[in-house]
Design brief:
It comes from Cyanidioschyzon merolae (strain NIES-3377 / 10D) (Unicellular red alga). One of its GO terms (molecular function) is L-malate dehydrogenase (NAD+) activity. Keywords: NAD, Oxidoreductase. The chain is of the alpha/beta class and 347 residues long. Helices cover 42% and strands 15% of the residues. The strands form three sheets. Strands 3-2-1-4-5-6 form a six-stranded parallel beta sheet. The protein has a three-stranded antiparallel beta sheet with strand order 9-10-11. The chain has a two-stranded antiparallel ribbon with strand order 7-8. It is globular and about 55 Å long. Bound molecules: nicotinamide-adenine-dinucleotide and (2S)-2-hydroxypentanedioic acid (S2G). Residues 104, 110, 143, 170, 242-243, 245-246, 252-253 line the site of (2S)-2-hydroxypentanedioic acid (S2G).
């Protein structure tokens, strides 16, 4: 259960301004009620929503706004702003949630998305540079999320680099839930799973530092059947979970993505739940664990109220883990190279 003290409003005297792109899409349809109801920013924080989508989605977006009105959410300021002009959506925003992009369809490779979505993140980086608050906090969700966040940050120099993050929390939650199911534990009893690297099939879902009241830190790999079981079952299951949902729904994950975005934002803005709790966020590397400085990489982090976080940089990484971290690092380096090529063409 959330403690109300933890969720003391960030701005008691005004509405928190939240811009959401791709607001006519499916993740937004699950996320907007979480924002409007106080689930993410607490039951006392007023919210102003500024929604962006492409002109072709105007009618759907208007319908979403009608539903937000009809929800009679006590915390939501009216009118909800909706627009197809990025500068209008981002103006004055405290929090910027970037969903707007093309999701992968069955038969598409994730790398097909790099070129398709790169220009969106260039344009939105430039728009943020023009109109955003210098202390805005940004989360990129549109895939390929790490590299889109990197592209955005190349065009948005006004906002500090560490305020630009991307979503690894869905993978983190998937792993946490899987561990709970395997051990027949409550999800809330599972702590400190970690996702490393890319939000892709090379990510490394790591249980080395995870624990529950029954399984002490250091024993989780054995409790889940040992390293060969992890390598053959647990790790691939999490790495391929997005693809599994896509194959089943013929649409990518949306409800669970919205829940994860809420978790990411709540922990980022209010602090992680306890002093020792670790969550996974895609943030610019500070060089920890030998990851290239500036590369957008999922790391274990601890957050402190007001949008501050620190990468937990002192975990011992054994050979088993290092191999996975190197694989996802290599993929991210090559995505960044491709993005650099595209960016230099875009300039
Ligand atoms: N990082 C993660 O964990 C994670 C999880 C799930 C989905 N995703 C990604 O999130 C993105 C959104 O997924 P979705 O299911 O909501 O997709 P969707 O297709 O339902 O919605 C995307 C919306 O973005 C809009 N859009 C496209 N270009 C835009 C632009 N330039 N500006 C504003 N809006 C624009 C589209 O019109 C559409 O309404 C996809 O890229 C998907 O792959 C990431
Ligand atoms: O396109 C994909 O494979 C994944 C979509 C989404 O990022 C997810 O993790 O569910």
């Amino acid at each position: 259960m959330e403690s109300l003290a933890r969720l003391t409003p960030l701005y008691p005297d005004r509405a928190l301004i939240v811009a959401v792109t791709g607001a006519a899409g499916q993740i937004a349809y699950s996320l907007l009620p979480l924002l409007a109801s106080g689930t993410v920013f607490g039951p006392q924080q007023r919210i102003k929503l500024q929604l962006l989508d492409v002109p072709a989605a105007e009618s759907v977006l208007k319908g979403v706004c009608c539903e937000l009105e009809d929800g009679a959410y006590p915390l939501l300021d009216h009118p909800v702003l909706y627009t197809s002009v990025a500068d209008e959506a981002f103006a004055g925003a405290d929090i910027v949630v970037l969903l707007g992009s093309f999701p992968r369809k069955p038969g598409m490779e994730r790398k097909d998305l790099l070129a398709k979505n790169g220009t969106i993140f260039r344009d939105q980086g430039q728009a943020l540079n023009r109109v955003a608050k210098a202390d805005a906090h940004v989360i990129v969700v549109g895939n390929p999320a790490n590299t889109n966040a990197w592209t955005l940050s190349q065009f948005c120099t006004k906002i500090p680099k560490e305020h630009i993050t991307a979503l690894a929390r869905l993978d983190h939650n998937r792993l946490k839930s899987l561990v709970a199911r395997k051990l027949d534990s409550a999800v809330s009893d599972v702590h400190n799973v970690i996702i490393w690297g890319n939000h892709s099939a090379t990510q490394y879902p790591d249980v080395t530092y995870a624990y529950t009241p029954q399984i002490v830190q250091g024993k989780m790999r054995a409790a889940l059947g040992g390293d060969s079981q992890l390598a053959s079952e647990v790790i691939p299951l999490i790495q391929k979970r997005g693809a599994e949902v896509l194959a089943l729904r013929k649409l990518s994950s949306a409800m669970s993505a919205a829940k994860a975005i809420g978790d990411h934002l709540r922990d980022w803005m209010f602090g992680t739940q306890t002093e020792n709790e670790i969550v996974s966020m895609i943030v610019p590397s500070d060089g920890s664990y030998g990851i290239d400085k500036g590369l957008m990489f999922a790391f274990p982090v601890q957050c402190h109220r007001g949008g501050k976080y620190r990468i937990v940089s002192d975990l011992r990484i054994d050979d088993f883990s290092r191999k996975y971290i190197e694989t996802t690092l290599a993929e991210l380096r090559s995505e960044r190279e491709e993005a650099m090529r595209l960016v230099s063409k875009m300039c």
